[in-house]
Amino acid sequence: MTAPTASPAVCPRCSDEAVRTVAHSPVPDVWEVLQCARCLYMWRTTEPARRTSPGAYPERFRMTAEDIATALEVPAVPPLAAR
Amino acid sequence: MPYDDLRSFLDTLEKEGQLLRIPDEVLPEPDIAAAANAAGRIGEGAPALWFDRVKGFTDARIAMNVHGSWRNHALALGMPKETSPREQVEEFARRWDAFPVPPERRADAPWQENTVTGGDVDLFAVLPLFRLNDGDGGFYLDKAAVVSRDPADPDHFGKQNLGTYRMEVIGRDRLALQPVPVHDIAQHLRTAEERGEDLPVAITLGNDPVIPIVAGMPLRYDQSEYEMAGALRGAPMPIATAPHTGLDVPWGAEVVIEGVVESRVRQIEGPFGEFTGHYSGGRRMPVIRIERISYRSRPVFESLYLGMPWTECDYLVGPNTSVPLLKQLRAEFPEVRAVNAMYTHGLLVIISTAKRYGGFAKAVGMRAMTTPHGLGYVSQVILVDEDVDPFDLPQVMWAQSAKVNPREDVLVLPNLSVVELAPASQPAGVTSKMIIDATTPVAPDVRGNFGTPVKDLPETAAWAARLRTLLATR
Ligand SMILES: Cc1cc2nc3c(=O)[nH]c(=O)nc-3n(C[C@H](O)[C@H](O)[C@H](O)COP(=O)(O)O)c2cc1C
Ligand SMILES: [Zn+2]
Fold first, then answer.
1. Which of the residues A54, B133, B201, B330 has an alpha carbon 20 to 30 A from that of B167?
2. What is the ipTM of this complex?
């Protein structure tokens, strides 16, 4: 594996460290697709820093554990019908 | 001659000079989205874009902006590419009258060539996925049609729904789905979840060019999108049976993804840059588990860019939102002449109508808000006279500037329903709505000084023809 595909330790969006690789480039060692297990953010290692680097990731798109836990349910799960 | 698949339509676009092949190698991000975004910024008549040299991929074929100009939209419906937006809407409305045209079931669908199932399902192995906008939570399928049935009436062909719903790839075999509550699939899912059952779905990607038009069209719940496709094509829509779910899918699709919406499950999704020109928030939304993928060899991945309007999405849902509203209004009010619902899927609508009596136009505006689509979208209605073309915005602005007495002609109605994605709604999903009556008052509404309008001279029509001829033969 070459340097550009090395996984960062943390998610650029929520700073969680549980990051896994979901895909490798068909041409070997060009990029990987990574995903955060907590906020499900997915990114390719060759994307611009504003999407991949925790330092450069815009404040307005960040997510916290609290945001995830309190996110609106759309659509809401309906009550089970009595049967 | 209608198109039975995407590939034959791409051939036509190329022959018509409406497909641009990008010769250089591009990065999956940000190049593909930025190029498609730019297609909407280079003026009229933008072409579809084709990418087959994408860094890191060995075998990517990506089509963007296929419906992304009036020319391409006309060609998709088999009209000459010069056809004006208004003429496209009128022809669309004429073809509607042939509805319903029963579909034609065909065997040997090309997507039967390749199949993966169960643990072998991996979206990344089939599709060259990529991100659109900076704040998007991931990679999306945003130009796919999703097919589902009413669990309470599974044999009703018309209640089977085919709709465009964007889906976020949240795993190799998992997608998050956004069923807006006023849409048909939300009704199917609600019934399934009340019973504690999964909802089977088939997702079809890379369709013939009429499918995206009917899949994004606000038809009545029990009206079949396939029977509408037949009317618009002028020939029966070819369909085939999806092998895993038994759902009816377009025969000519590039890729058919089958699985279920898992009952009573929600997972974090988004944000996604939406048709409103704003991001949806991160919400907890339903999840699809993929169980089988069928695909044509060397599949074409079709996607669309959406962001700050206008983008491909606006061309795609312009005419197909205007015509259902026109038909639904005219069914009760034959005075309605034309409807332009091309702004943000009909959040704003312009209606031209004759007046039965004083106050009539305002009633037409209220009715537009209570159509099935209106309940979730129509928030501002501008009414203009029967001789004002609602597609001619300078004329509409003239009517509004000259005919409106704001205190009497602008009605604001509080606390009505709207899609929760509407950025101005407060709280999300609730909004006030506005009617601007820019028609000329008629008796017994005797307000204003409209008795002496200046009309085009009787000789003007002949002179217009004469000027055109002189210009053409100069
Ligand atoms: C590109 C695109 C993406 C869309 N995404 C969604 C979506 O995620 N959820 C949704 O409910 N509607 C979405 N729509 C709108 C519906 O497809 C459209 O309103 C359609 O008329 C729904 O019809 P139905 O209620 O008959 O199923 C999208 C439309 C387009 C063109
Ligand atoms: Zn994260």
1. A54
2. 0.94
